[in-house]
Amino acid sequence: MSDRMVSAPVRTARADVLLASVGERGILCDFYDEAAADIYRDILHEDSWEAAEYAGRVRGTAGPVLELAAGTGRLTVPLLDLGREITALELSGAMLAILRERLADVPAALRDRCTVVQGDMSAFELDRRFGAVVISPGSINLLSEAQRSGLYASVREHLEPGGKFLLGVPEKDTGKPDTLERSQEIPGGSGRRYVLHARLVPAERAREVTICPADETADPFVVCTSRISFVDADQVGRELGEAGFDVLERVPLVFGGGRHQDVLLVAAPSGDR
Ligand SMILES: C[S@@+](CC[C@H](N)C(=O)[O-])C[C@H]1O[C@@H](n2cnc3c(N)ncnc32)[C@H](O)[C@@H]1O
Question: What's this model's pTM, rounded to 2 decimal places?
């Protein structure tokens, strides 16, 4: 399967302005696309800060584990330490390529228990069932309401009796910050700097994010975009109920010792306990 599965980049208003000003140097891509892979690696935290909370709940289940939107394997590798078979499903070929590189560097005993699959978490069909299905924080927000409903249905179809669905979601996203638009400079691990521009689209209950190099002379000038839906734990809890799940636990996820912004929802198909 090719990287063409990644959806077309969101054409944000900010990206239009930037691309018009840099001419042929400009490249527009999705944040998880191949052209953005270096930027992704440069600016994202790769520490598995929430792994212990996930691992603790996965331990209470039996059988293979399915991780959806596995990305570069930030959470996959610590979960492999639990000694379980893991299927890591991810849409972007670029992310999967980094995940495969990462797996090549871990002991064979771990690597051999990991199956990597390119697929869409909102509509997937695998030929096995799982004791736990997990999704890291920051992923469900990439789906529209219709896609989330596809996600819940696909997960139900793939859980063993007694299986658990572990889902990281923002604790609260009111969609009402002080400003409609804001820009901030962010440093990359390489020393390069980037500008992150976020714009609210209240009518669509979403935020458009545009990231570009701070250096206006960069060539190529890679502009990457993403659209993040406003969903929070209450809303996802309601949606899970409508999709036939009971939420059993709501665990605060604490990033870097600070105030928590995400929670881990632990859900199971209704009547399945
Ligand atoms: C915020 S990243 C999280 C990656 C990884 N789980 C982690 O915690 O580092 C979101 C991931 O979701 C992937 N993604 C976006 N839409 C997807 C879809 N419909 N199906 C599967 N993966 C998707 C992106 O390519 C990206 O790797």
Answer: 0.93
**Pocket residues: Cβ below 6 A from ligand 1:** 32, 69-72, 74-75, 90-92, 95, 120-122, 136, 138-139, 142
- CA of 137, closest atom in ligand 1: 8
Rounded distance from Cα 138 to ligand 1 centre (Å): 8
pLDDT in tens, 29-57: 999 999 898 898 899 877 888 999 999 99
CATH number of 51-172+231-269: 3.40.50.150
Beta bridge partners of residue 225, listed in sequence order: 30, 210
CATH top-level class for 7-43+174-229?
A: alpha beta
Edge-to-edge, what's the strand order for the sheet holding 181-187?
26-30, 221-229, 206-213, 193-201, 181-187
The single-letter code of the amino acid at 133 is V
Centre of ligand 1 to C-alpha 71, Å, is 5
pLDDT exceeds 50 at position 1? no
How far, in Å, from the CA of 161 to the mean position of ligand 1?
A: 26
Enumerate the CATH 3.40.50.150 domain ranges in the chain, comma separated.
Answer: 51-172+231-269
Give CATH 3.30.1040.60 domain extents, the chain: 7-43+174-229
